[in-house]
Design a protein that fits this description.
Two copies of one chain form a homodimer.
Chain A (H helix, E strand, L loop, with lengths): L8 H17 L7 E2 L1 H11 L1 H4 L7 H9 L7 E2 H23 L6
């Protein structure tokens, strides 16, 4: 039998992203996409540190519209990953700016 | 003092992706991008389950070229995330096909 080694950090991340998406996408009967309600539930639970500081009540509506590239009123997994990627890039830029305050990056 | 709650699964993923990128991007003196050598090191360590099954020795070369959207011979964090996103979408599609073998998705 082939030995199954423990997953790497990157493999764990990929598994987690799929699991989190499935957790929220599966709240209604269709687990391939996030509906607006599921998106709000995801944002207010998983990214509450971001949403609770938003004073503008329309920000999540606008985010959903911007992320919904094919305008079907739902977010598929690729559209969801674009959200995660956008946040990750913003965090990474802040990290680099904090690490190299003199450099323009 | 404000209470710092433990990170959510999504926040942990974002932190991990930045940490993994920084780990490999920081192997030379420039930690903003993955050089070709750093990309190969990342692929052969973090995604070894994928690379060890590749019989074509040129596959990583071609992946690097395809991911390097601005053709500077380096992968920045966004280009790195496109790789992770591509793998995650492929895994998610397999998951949905296995869960719903009759449906076309």
């Amino acid at each position: 039998m082939a030995k199954i080694s423990s997953p790497t950090e990157t493999e764990r991340c990929i598994e987690s992203l799929i699991a989190v998406f499935q957790k929220y996408a599966g709240k209604d009967n269709y687990n391939c996409t996030l509906s607006k309600t599921e998106f709000l539930s995801f944002m207010n639970t998983e990214l509450a540190a971001f949403t609770k500081n938003q004073k503008d009540p329309g920000v999540l509506d606008r985010m959903m519209k911007k992320l919904d590239l094919n305008c079907d009123g739902q977010l598929d997994f690729q559209e969801f990953l674009n959200l995660i990627g956008g946040i990750a890039v913003a965090c990474h830029d802040s990290f680099l700016k904090a690490a190299h305050p003199q450099k323009r990056i």
